[in-house]
Amino acid sequence: MTIDAHVHYWQFDPVRDAWITEAMTVLRQDYLPQLAKSVFAENAVDACIAVQADQSETETDFLVELAVQNPFIKGLVGWVDLSSDSIEERLAYYSRFPIIKGWRHIVQAEPMDFLQREDFRRGIKALRAYSYTYDVLVYHQQLKPALAFMHAFPDQRFIIDHCAKPAIAKKEIGEWAKYMKEMAQHPDVYCKLSGLLTEAAWNDWTPADFYPYLDTVFDCFGAERLLFGSDWPVMLLSGTYRQWKSLLETYMKNCSDTERQNIFGANAVRCYNL
Q1: Which residues of the chain have pLDDT under 50?
Q2: CB of 137 within 8 A of CB of 162?
């Protein structure tokens, strides 16, 4: 089974989705499972994990309902206020929905010291009781505090979204690669091969632009802790689904069948307890 470990769904709302600017014309419409299903069929993808795009419990409830209606959504990463004083109560409530595998906060939009906040860390600590994962969404310049954050929770499973968004368009790699190597020392940290198209120059890239960054994460995490993901539909800002999946398949042409199976599905099953 081929699993896309990072997909978003929304019914476009210009107020709620203010991050989708007028320059992002392709995203200013609804993206729902019916459309995703046709894209997956064209690209030999069997299933997906839905990931929150809005920071509200309404978003989490929306994704739960989509998963009920669409069995190819095998798991979801939702949002809950991890800084809330009532976080234990909210996690207990959501534990009734086994389709929820983990949680995410859009830390890339937060101040540099956000991951040091005691109230947020209290919420992360509470995840362990339910074996929930936590998706780490940061920019490359936030990697130093993110590393310290991960060290504080050695028993927590983390998944780094979008390879921590390296500065591919600027061809910067040194500092990013250093921190990714350190993060990989944490045995329960995984990394998604997703979201990289939009870190390159939009619609003005070549496959070779990504290879140094792919080399780094393959060296750091190996085929046992990397997950194929698309970041659909956000990726459409810079390319097509077929382009991204084909780029990875070409890059991995010398990998074994087992390594390919791990990255394109089996790791997602293990990582998210699908």
Answers
A1: none
A2: yes
